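User: Could you walk me through two proteins back to back? I'd like the raw sequence and the structure tokens for each, with a short line separating them so I can tell where one ends and the next begins.

Assistant: Of course. Protein one, sequence then structure:
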Amino acid sequence: MPPNSPPSRPRPPQPVAFRLEGALAATAVPVRYDSGLAAPRATEVAEEVPVNIVYGVMPYAVMMTTPADLEDFVTGFSLTEGIIRAVAEIRGIDVARRPEGFVVTVTLDPGRFREHLARRRNLSGRTSCGLCGVEELAALPFAPQRVDGTLAVRPDAIKAALTALDAHQPLNAATHAVHAAAWCDANGRIRAAREDVGRHNALDKLIGAELRAGGDPSAGFLLVTSRASFEMVEKAAIFGAGTLVSISAPTSLAIERAEALGLTLVCVARPDAALLYTGALATPCEVMPPEGAAP
């Protein structure tokens, strides 16, 4: 191709049948700042589709999500949204593919469905916001109780989980565009992980998977690849986990709510160090004096 010739036009994303669920093929033109455009090459991108969540015959929300593990997603979403209090209140889940996206219909226990009808909340489809459609401050989702008495996590378990995390993110390895949430045991072994374009969705998928598998939320800790925001803390506490570890930093409200809920919050987690904001870890760590303090 002559140096000044325009490159081939990138093609729209196409399904990758032989690759990961949730990944699509797309052609991109590499741009080198010092030498211009290069020849087009194949890439993989994260699939993002609208998912209409319906309880009974009543639509509840349209969420933008990665179309994998949708049964786990709606189970975790139902719990963290306060639609259900236990997985047994879900009688069935039907996933239907439509030309414009997915419709996931959840059949609730009749008593729980009547309670659901009394609530009013509409969510706009988003991947970055967990509070879309909340009309009043009083409607913010708060965990109903503290999570005291759960497992005290060892620092070496956090290190082990971080070290193993990449191996549990095949979709991100292919697309570099999705978040992950992992459930780790007391030794830092990753027992389950879910990925999604939305950080809230990834956590809801993981919580749903653990609920459906009958997992014990007090026997391990959550690890997420995103920041620790208010909603992530609330979801962790609603699930019953005592510790939330995030790779990115926390927000002020996340710290405030973690303290109030008795949740151990560990952030900016790296294989060699992390920041403990609330709660305690199992192994006492030496407390260093603040920078600039007299010895």
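----
Protein two, same layout:
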Amino acid sequence: MMRIETVCLDKLGSRRMPLRNRIDRALRAGTLAVAVTLACLAVQGTISAQPYPSRPVKLIVPFPAGGSIDMVPRVLGPAMSDLLGQPVVIENRPGATGRIGVIAARQSAPDGYSFGIANAVTHGISPAVNPNVGYDPVSDMVPVVWLGEAPNGFFVNAKLPARSPTELADLIRKNPGKYNYGSGGHGTGQHVNATIFLSTMGVPQSASTHVPYQGEAPALNDLVGGHVSYMITSGSKDLVDSGKLRILATTGRKRWFRYPDVPTTAEIGIPDIYYTGWVGIVAPKGTPQSVIDRLNEVANKALQDPKAREVLAKNGYEPRGGTAADFAEHLRNEATRWRTQVTKTGVKFH
């Protein structure tokens, strides 16, 4: 905790730094703290008379620093700071496929100084695959705002002959055990989406071995090296542009702006394979509505910042925003959809 406070004070000392420089600095930091501003509630008692916020606000990210889920609030932080003038500490609480961080956020005091970062894994996939996840993705926290989303893609090693998901499924079916897939860990989006792919295409799960890694980056490295054959993930445009990987299709409702010439899974006849890696903010139950409304307003304004939008786009994300009610509806839809999808596969993840 001492390190968090030290970094936070450093950020306070640099508030006059240009917004572009602060975004770059926050992204380079990649550790536990980033200067962000959030509007919240004054604490009860003697503190309640003070202007809010009167101290740093904590965003609990349930995955490690440096990943895409951590990147989104980190990029939006400087613009939000300009709007509100108080720092927020980003506290990374990884572990158990996001479960540790989600429970930490849920158990935080509803005093306006602690929020959680919800995402497709923790609030869609994990509760669907793990009946003992320890929280309800819809009712245990209060939706604040949907920040952004990015589709995934079917990525294969460039030496693999497949040019479409259908051809990939045919290769696996004809050569059981030869073509394996990587993921950032057991029960992650990459893992679950691959099982859905195999199930949808009528390929036995045993025909393609799952190889879990400690995060997406080492899995991508082994995909490039040919140690695994394919992944359904956010991937790397640089690796595609350099010819080391090939992307066969994308998993959004519309074509991904990063790959405008690559069809969606729906376009090629497999609409059940749909996934976007979304990110949003949630609050502990009991957080006053005035806090939810103010934070939603600030986040929506930050999402319009040109530099923030530029960096989000570079990382494949499309800004979302909207009302807290919009985000609540999205959470409900995701929870229902993933329960249905996981049930259809028949795969037991735990």
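Residues 153-274 form a domain with the D-Maltodextrin-Binding Protein; domain 2 fold (CATH 3.40.190.10).

Let me know if you want the two compared in more detail.
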